[in-house]
Amino acid sequence: MNKRKGNKRYERARRRRQRLLFMTVIGLLLCVGVGVAAVKLVMTTFAREKAVITIMADPVTIRQEQEIPKLTANILVSGDEEAVLDKKSGYTVGDLVKEIRKGEHYQIENKADNTTEGTFSLKVTLTKEMKKKLDNQFKNKVEIKTQDGTLVVKNKYGDWEGKKFKKADGNYAVSEFVAMGDKKYYFDEEGNMVTGEMKQGNKEYVFSDTGVLESEKFIGLDPTKPMVALTFDDGPGKDTDRLLEALKKYNARATFFMLGNNAKNYGSVIKKMKDMNCELGNHSTTHAQLTKLSAEAIKKEIQTTSEYIKNAAGVGPTVMRPPYGAVNATVKQNVGLPMILWSVDTLDWKTKSTPKTVESIMTAKDGDIILLHDIHTTSVDAAIEAIPKLIEKGFQLVTVSEMAEAKGQKLELGVKYFSF
Ligand code: NI
Q1: In this predicted model, what pLDDT tens digit does every residue of 260-289 receive, in sequence order?
Q2: What is the pLDDT of residues 102-111, one digit of tens each?
Q3: How far is the CA of 304 from the centre of ligand 1 (A)?
Q4: Do 368 and 359 contact (CB within 8 A), yes or no?
Q5: How many whole angstroms separate alpha carbon 87 and alpha carbon 64?
Q6: What are φ and ψ of residue 217, in 5° steps?
Q7: How many Å lie between the centroid of ligand 1 and the Cα of residue 186?
């Protein structure tokens, strides 16, 4: 009896436990179900939100004269991409987005060109057809927003940073002129733009308050008065320094057409020429007859000497004289410097006579280029004697480039000049 009673009680408790477990499971399942349904509801509610497509023009930065790249846009989408826009074809917002990403349905207007500096608007506009569709069949399903961009056209020469100028190559302009179109500026050793007056080398410059070069002239040179250019070939030599001292004494200048094979041994003399504002010229490396050489060999004859001169003076030659005055088309195309010949040939190398050379020098007229050789002592002696005589006759003793400029001639590469 007790045992049976005990069994019954046990049975009831077991059933209660089972019911409880069952209810718990059902409860949990219900909860999960409701949760999933709720999430689904929320998701569908949000997904059904009207799609918004934003077309944003990508910003573009170029330098003047660089080609404007193909204008592109960034496309952003929110809302229901699955919304069907055309029931018949099943065309969805997603399909529309794909087309827009391919560049369809809109254009980017740009009124800038690549010549004018400045910031210009890149205007995004939808095609007429798209605007019409958005107002009608696509209404309430999709919206397209546009966002304009900018096209920045930067100065092709570089960027101003206050009074400093960072050139297009990334380096700051320091101790140099920078031409920007028809304007020319100078930046000092600290990289600051120069205004007002400046003396440099044998020139005097005047800049405006905004740094634009307004005038430049050679110091101690009157373009209305007669002038001649003394030129010395084949050196430097042992007498060149003595010649420089004589020029210095009379505040005179000359042009030296140097041979690379000599230039490499007279670095300090070349530096002195430069410091005296004499003109540095190239006369080839080996005194080769350039007309007998290939284009490559001509270039090498010139470049080697230019390097020796630049190493010594810090600046390269500005003019050249072909040995023997020999020039042909290949020489013209490959020397890369103006070719300076002469109008007074003293034949100093032939006579080796100081009086005859002086006599020849003194036949010079305004604008003449006088040919001499500073490797001969007799020639240097003649020049030293002639310098005060020329000055006494009213001549200004100038370099070839100074004379060309004073006479209004622009020296061009590969062109021959005899006098000015
Ligand atoms: Ni020569």
Answers
A1: 999 999 999 999 999 999 999 999 999 999
A2: 999 999 999 8
A3: 16
A4: no
A5: 50
A6: -150, 155
A7: 37
pLDDT score recorded for residue 41: 58
Query: How many angstroms separate the alpha carbon of residue 407 from the centre of ligand 1?
Result: 26
Distance CA 247, CA 391 (A): 11
Dihedral pair phi/psi, residue 399, rounded to 5°? -85, 170
C-alpha pair distances (Å), 28 with each of 15, 22, 253, 397: 20, 10, 106, 110
Asked if 226 and 394 touch (Cβ cutoff 8 Å), the reply is: yes
Which helix H or strand E contains 133, and what residues bound it? helix 128-135
Q: How far apart are CA 151 and CA 167, in angstroms?
A: 20
Q: Give per-residue pLDDT as tens, 370-406.
A: 999 999 999 999 999 999 999 999 999 999 999 999 9
**Token output for 247:** 């020029």
Ligand 1 centroid to Cα of residue 93, in Å, is 82
Q: What is the DSSP letter of 292?
A: G
CA distance 282 to 259: 7
Torsion sign, CA atoms 265, 268, 271, 277? negative
Distance 27 CA to ligand 1 centre (A): 111
| Dist CA 34 CA 32 (whole Å) | 6
pTM of the model: 0.63
Which are the catalytic amino acids?
233, 373
CA dist 124 and 57 (Å) reads 7
Question: Ligand 1 centroid vs 233 CA: distance in angstroms?
Answer: 5
Nearest to 175 by CA among 163, 161, 160, 191: 191
Helices (H) then strands (E): counts for the chain: 12, 25
Q: Left if phi > 0, otherwise alpha if psi is -120 to 50, otherwise beta: which for 107?
A: beta
Contacts of residue 80, defined as CB under 8 A and 6 or more positions apart, other chains included, come to: 47, 48, 49, 50, 51, 93
Contacts 24+ apart (CB under 8 A), 75-82: 75/100, 75/101, 77/51, 77/52, 77/53, 78/49, 78/51, 78/52, 79/47, 79/49, 79/50, 79/51, 79/52, 79/142, 80/47, 80/48, 80/49, 80/50, 80/51, 81/51, 82/47
Which segments of 99-163 are extended strands (E)?
106-110, 118-126, 142-147, 149-154, 158-161
Three-state secondary structure call for residue 348:
helix
Q: Is 355 left (phi over 0), alpha (psi -120 to 50) or beta?
A: alpha
Query: Which residues in the chain come in under a pLDDT of 70?
Result: 1-6, 27, 31-48
